[in-house]
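ok so i was messing around last nite and threw this chain in just to see what happens. nothing serious, just curious
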Amino acid sequence: MSNYNSLFPMTGLRRHLWGTILALLMASSAFASDFSSPVGDLAKAIASTGITGSITFSLSNSSSLRSSDVIAIRGALETQLRSLGLPITTTNTATADVRVTLSENVEGYLWVAEIRKGDSTDVRMVSVPRASPLATVNPAPTVTIQKALLWSGPEQILDASLDGNRLLVLKATSVSVFSLSSGNWKQEQNLPLLHDHDFPRDLRGMIVPGNDHGVDLYLPGTSCRLTNNGGYAVGCRDEDDPWPIAGRSALFNSARNYFTGALFGTANNSVPPFYSAAAFERQGSLFSIFAGVDGHIRTSDGTSESMLSTSAVSDWGSDIVALKSGCGSGTQLLVTNAGDDTVADSLRAFEIPGSSPVQVSATVSFPGPITALWSHGDGSAVTAVTHNLQTGSYEAYTVSVTCSH
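result:
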């Protein structure tokens, strides 16, 4: 998920019609009685904030619940809210905006409702035990995702990466260099990145460290090179150089926020436009995955291409990346959650042993939408950048995977 996820059709928001139909279809099943209690509790908690009249309503999933469960929960919750005198509308006549997030922690599931009325905001929460049949039926996790805060600041961060004992933080107009001092990062240099054209609104950028000639920086229509000879220096040029991604190079659309689909250094010379891509070795060949602008997840083994089923990836966001861990098959696919830039995000690890992805980790939550997810170096390090919804700051995390036993 990121601020460009709003353009991605794989959204966590479901159409009211399908939610209502599914809720009615499941009303007589044993499953319905299992989630009816927490749904009822959350609906009553929302109504207890004193709102009257119509509301706008949205729901996003940052937990390991299956997409079918999420759809059913949404439909049931909408029905409960209407029965409490809170009709749902999409117009600007609503008296309140209700946003529900399905998240989880070590104890179980946590459903959070944010009720916005004018300048005031109320929050209501309902805990759901993990032992509940609402839990996903995925196999037991084989890997554990770990995150560690690397950097936090008020300015938008596009990427962050270690260069030896220095931390590089890429921003819209500069790259900052930090060194450790008494356990904290202290800025040594802030180098402007010069360019002669306007950047798109939904800006993206990438750091490619560890090259013999220095560190490369990629921004839309601009390439920069960072060198260190007793002090860092940077030089930029306005060029549409392909960005290195997923074991190859891909042309980035300098006027938008996605890759055009033109590929270099591979047998596949083009695919439909995509937001992100990942690749890893499978059965002796390079297996590639593309999160398409059209909402489809495409795969390629170098000779043939296919699409993952919509039902298997309906709750995937537009950011995917491969991480080499040595666990399981050796490489996992990290995937953001579907949603937009108004809800908190999460990461899950998947493997694709056959034609369908299999979740192999628990869900790890972040304090806001993930705005960047890049692999660095040999693929064993990943940086996730998030926009903290509570503090407003941008935070860069290093993400790693350990083997579960």
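not much to say yet. The CA atoms of residues 221 and 240 lie 5 Å apart.
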